[in-house]
């Protein structure tokens, strides 16, 4: 499964990059395939391991912020691996035609 999620601290002002970096660090240290862009971090793995990482990413932000917002979108497709890369490659291939 692939999960795209965003963790945002609330009540800490406009500059939230430091808090977001803490959450992304948890994802990167998980060892699961992941990508971060301007809006979301995507992570790939099985349900339990991905949700555990999301929970820990929220928890690390929650330690320093009075409130946390979580936006999550999941692509649950059993038997598919390397979707994080292959989905993008498919789109790029079609764009090149």
TrEMBL record:
PANTHER family xrefs: UPF0045 PROTEIN ECM15
GO cellular component: cytosol
Gene3D superfamilies in the record: 3.30.70.930
Organism superkingdom: Bacteria
Protein name: MTH1187 family thiamine-binding protein
Residue ranges constituting the Thiamine-binding protein domain according to the UniProt record: 3-92
InterPro entries: MTH1187/YkoF-like, Thiamine_BP, UPF0045_domain
Organism taxonomic ancestry: Bacteria, Bacillati, Actinomycetota, Actinomycetes, Kitasatosporales
Signal peptide span: none
Biological source species: Streptomyces cyaneochromogenes
Similarity comment: Belongs to the UPF0045 family.
